[in-house]
UniProtKB/TrEMBL annotation:
Residues 10-367 form the Enoyl reductase (ER) domain. GO terms for molecular function: aryl-alcohol dehydrogenase (NAD+) activity; zinc ion binding. This is Aryl-alcohol dehydrogenase. Its EC number is 1.1.1.90. SMART domains: PKS_ER. It holds the Pfam family ADH_N. Its cofactor is Zn(2+). PANTHER family: NAD-DEPENDENT ALCOHOL DEHYDROGENASE (PTHR43350:SF17). It comes from Variovorax boronicumulans. Signal peptide: none annotated. Belongs to the zinc-containing alcohol dehydrogenase family. It is an enzyme of class 1 (oxidoreductase). It comes from the Bacteria.
Length: 369
């Protein structure tokens, strides 16, 4: 079928709105008409050519919409169901079988190759194959193919147009607090970076009734929103000479948990000075390999002396069939207002949305095909 998609023609170019061909669903696949899709930092990294996916490509991996068709063998959903699409996973490896699909052994191949697991392409134009299946969906488009395994039903009352970011950025931030680090009631947290992931962590920390929740973020608008969402303190790094000292002024013993979303080497190097003894550092922001390692002078010694745990986090350790319904239920109860993070744009304005995000004019842009 012919669909409309935002295509990245070559790395570091602007997206182009094109008509391309999308396969009908095969066994285990579902066709989703996209009602809304978030723009995630991972999409922009892929657009720079830093992953294995080739160009031209259709990116997008925070989609939500309505099932229009299903392939043979699909029983989880049916046409007409409203769904959010999350990352792809095999369902069979030891990690998947232990309900840790974010660490699926086939994660890179299923999410970053631009092809189905059998090596075939699901998208093409007049010049040949177009890379798709980005994170199991490629949802910068009017329609996307996913596996029944990586869709989750959206209950009535959750706005379908803005539900897509639950499938990646929002579950990553919330899951970091509620699953990966499993932050305890009455403990303290410092969040480094106030984008959609960081602010989702703030909301989750508030739900966990942590006694101190600190956000380090240069944007005044985001700091104010963090206070509305449950932060107890905010710090503008541009106004302090030592971020660690600023955190310690609020938490003299340090933070029990630190969660980094920035990936900035200077910020990450300050973490050992922020953590309380036996503190946990969770990180999703990853700097260039040449910019940082575990060996800056004294870092390993500080880690050992403090008894620190460093914890890499993928997708908030989410088991989507369990965690996404939990987040949606919290939203319906008024306890997880992720809609406050979202600004919508037509799909045709994708390049403006990307620019606005770069400039800090929005937190989580969502495209409406």
């Amino acid at each position: 079928m012919r669909v409309t998609a935002a295509v990245m023609p070559r790395p570091n170019q602007s997206f182009e709105i094109r008509e391309i061909e999308l396969d009908a669903p095969r066994a285990g696949e579902v066709l989703v008409r996209i009602y809304g899709v978030g723009i995630c930092h991972t999409d922009l990294v892929a657009a720079e050519g830093r992953y294995s996916i080739t160009m031209p490509a259709v990116l997008g991996h925070e989609g939500a919409g309505v099932i229009e068709d299903v392939g043979p063998g699909v029983t989880k959903v049916k046409p007409g169901d409203q769904v959010v699409i999350t990352f792809a996973f095999c369902g069979d490896c030891p990690m998947c079988c232990s309900r840790q699909p974010a660490y699926c052994r086939s994660m890179p191949a299923l999410n970053l190759s631009g092809k189905r697991a059998d090596g075939s392409s699901s998208l093409r134009d007049d010049q040949g194959d177009v890379a798709g299946r980005f994170f199991g969906q490629s949802s910068f488009a009017s329609h996307a193919l996913a596996l029944e395994r990586n869709v989750v039903k959206v209950p009535e009352g959750v706005p379908l147009e803005i539900a897509g970011p639950l499938g990646c950025g929002i579950q990553t931030g919330a899951g970091a607090i509620m699953r990966s680090m499993d932050c305890a009631n009455g403990t303290s947290l410092a969040v480094l970076g106030g984008g959609a992931v960081g602010l989702s962590a703030i909301m989750a920390a508030s739900l966990r009734e942590m006694r101190a929740i600190i956000l380090v973020e240069p944007s005044a608008r985001r700091r104010q929103l963090a206070l509305e969402l449950g932060a107890t303190h905010v710090i503008d790094p541009a106004t302090v000479t030592d971020v660690a000292a600023a955190v310690r002024s609020a938490l003299s013993a340090g933070a029990d948990y630190v969660f980094d979303t920035s990936g900035l080497p200077g910020v990450i190097n300050a973490v050992p000075k922020i953590l309380a003894p036996r503190g946990v550092f969770g990180f999703v922001g990853v700097p260039p390999a040449s910019a940082i390692d575990l060996g800056p002078p004294g870092t390993l010694r500080e880690m050992m002396r403090g008894g620190f745990t460093y914890r890499g986090i993928i997708e908030g350790d989410s088991d989507p069939d369990v965690f996404l319904p939990e987040l949606m239920t919290l939203y319906l109860k008024g306890q997880f207002p992720f809609d406050k993070l979202i600004t919508t744009y037509p799909l045709s304005d994708i390049n403006r949305a990307v620019s606005d995000q770069h400039q800090g004019l929005c937190i989580k842009p969502v495209l409406l095909p």
